[in-house]
């Protein structure tokens, strides 16, 4: 879906929304994903994520938003289209995805922590096995990341002793430890009890304030309004509407208007 420069030239939104000029960190071009039985989950989606932006994808369950996110680091293989991390096409058949994934942090709905390892060891594992850092350096980085997500006091406990919100913050710390160029968040609060959601969103807001480039799939419309730089609304595998956060208050399409009204009724 091609687009020119947005019309909201004077919209500052606390410094988050500019003219979208700057370096592309992620580019998605005509992405398609078709499953067995000719089920089209994603139908020619195109967008980009600029450096230090928080691009938020919203939409109903089954709209294709999580499929798009997982295609970005090829946890799901696209049927067609191109995806770039900076200038490198990661959908090319010769791309070393193990190397690329060290540059793309991923936070899942279900935490994906190793339950038999302590919090500290969950974070240091990738640093020692993938980055090949010494144990000492890995521990130093892990401790710094734990402090960053306000979880330093949990370094020696096991994930089974943590709440869902705490587990998700550890998962964020683990991804951050690899110094990724972009962070992907796939419904990071959907598996949490309502009272635990705030701590995770607070951590994500802090990352945004620090300039982390983020691509976020979420139902948290308040987060999208407050932190998002660019909003993408998907329905039935397509981008229906996109723009700066203002579109959440003034959608232009009937489909997005209906979606937002349903979300507000639920909340």
In whole angstroms, the N-to-C terminal distance is 31 Å
- Outline the low-pLDDT stretches: 1-18
The share of residues in extended strands comes to 15-25%
Query: Overall mean pLDDT score?
Result: 90
Identify the overall geometry. Answer: globular
How does the major sheet shape up?
A: 6 strands, mixed
Secondary-structure class = alpha/beta
Q: Radius of gyration, rounded? A: 18 Å
* Neighbour order of strands in the largest sheet: 6-7-8-3-9-10
Q: Give, in order, the helices and strands.
A: EEEHEEHEHHHEHEHEEH
Number of distinct helices? 8
**How many E-type strands?**
10
Question: Briefly, what is this?
Answer:
The protein is α/β, with parallel strands linked by helices.
């Amino acid at each position: 879906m091609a687009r020119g420069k947005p019309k909201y030239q004077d919209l500052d939104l606390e410094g988050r929304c500019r003219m979208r000029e700057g370096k592309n960190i992620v580019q998605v071009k005509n992405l398609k994903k078709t499953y067995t039985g000719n089920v089209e989950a994603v139908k020619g989606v195109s967008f980009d994520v600029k450096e230090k932006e928080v691009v938020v994808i919203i939409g109903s369950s089954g709209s294709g938003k999580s499929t798009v996110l997982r295609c970005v680091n090829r946890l799901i293989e696209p049927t067609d289209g191109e995806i770039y991390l900076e200038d490198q096409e990661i959908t090319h058949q010769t791309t070393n995805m193990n190397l690329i994934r060290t540059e793309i942090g991923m936070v899942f709905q279900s935490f994906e922590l190793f339950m038999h390892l302590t919090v500290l060891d969950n974070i240091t594992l990738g640093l020692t096995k993938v980055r090949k850092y010494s144990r000492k350096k890995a521990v130093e980085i892990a401790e710094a990341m734990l402090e960053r997500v306000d979880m330093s006091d949990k370094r020696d406990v096991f994930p089974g002793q943590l709440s869902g919100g705490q587990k998700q913050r550890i998962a964020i710390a683990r991804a951050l430890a690899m110094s990724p160029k972009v962070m992907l968040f796939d419904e990071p609060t959907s598996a949490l009890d309502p009272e635990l959601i705030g701590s995770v969103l607070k951590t994500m807001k802090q990352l945004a304030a620090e300039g982390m480039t983020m691509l976020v799939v979420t139902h948290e419309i308040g987060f999208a309004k407050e932190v998002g730089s660019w909003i993408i609304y998907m329905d039935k595998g397509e981008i229906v509407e996109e723009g700066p956060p203002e579109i959440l208050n003034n959608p232009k399409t009937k489909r997005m208007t209906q979606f937002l009204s349903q979300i507000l009724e639920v909340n």
